[in-house]
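Hi both,

Apologies for the delay on this - the queue was longer than expected. I finally got the zinc ion-bound model through. Below you'll find the protein sequence and the ligand SMILES exactly as submitted, and right after that the C-alpha cells for the full complex including the ligand.
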Amino acid sequence: MRVRAMDMVYYELKDSLKDDACPICVLINRNVDNFIDALLYESVNDIKIRKDINDSKGYCNYHAWKLQSFGDPLAHAIIYSDLIVSLIHEIDVFLKEVKFYQGVENFFGIKKENRKSLKRFKDYFVSNSDCPICSMVRDWEKEYILSFVEYMEKDREFKEKFKTEGFLCVPHMFKLLEHCRIRSAVKEIMAVQLDKYKKLLNLLNEIKRKSDYRFVNEPKSDEEKVAWIRAVEKWVGIPGIKK
Ligand SMILES: [Zn+2]
Ligand SMILES: [Zn+2]
C-alpha cells in the first residue's frame, strides 16, 4: 500500500476537488502557470531550458501563446532571437546547397540532387523533441492520475470528497480508468461521473428549452448561464489537454 497521507500530491489533489472541477486539469493548469512564472522570472537564462526550447524549435502553438499572454518582452526577445538565428542559418545553408532551375514548377520534388537538401531543411522544422511544456504536462498528468487512482482505491475521505465535489473531464476520466485495478473503485468513479453528466445534460436541455420563444422569458439560473462553457471544459479538459 502506497497511500501517502502526508504526501503533497494527496493534499494537492484533495484540495482541488471542489466546485465540480476536474482536479487533474486544475493542477496541470496551476503547474504550467508556475512554470511560466519561473521561466520568465529567471529560468530563461537557464542553459538547459534554452536548449530544450531550441531543440523542440520553440513551444507548441498553445503554449507559445500562453507564454506570450504573460507578457515579458525581454524573455521573448531572448527565446525568439535564438530560434530566428538558427532559422536564418538553416535558410542560408539551404540556399547554398539547392540548385534552382528556370521554368520548373516544383523544383523541390523534381530535381533529384535537391532532395537531400530539402529533406534536411524540412527536418529542421519537424523537431524530434516535443514541446517542453507539453512533455511536462504529460509527466504531471501521469503522476496525478496514478495517485488519484490510489487514493480512490484506498482513502475513504478522498473518495467522499470526489463524490461530492469532483467531476473529471472526459480525457482524464478515460486515462484514470485505464489505471484503475479495483472494480469497486471503477464503479464508484463511473457512478459519480454519470450523476454529474446527467446534471450537466439537464442544464444544457434547459438552455435549449429556454431558447424556444414560448419559454424565453423564464429566468436562467447561474448554473444554466455557464453550463455551455462547462460542457466544453468537461468534454475536452482545459486548453492544452490532449485526448
Ligand atoms: Zn481534466
Ligand atoms: Zn505545448
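Main takeaway for now: Residues 8-23+133-236 form one domain.

I'll put the files on the shared drive as well.

H.
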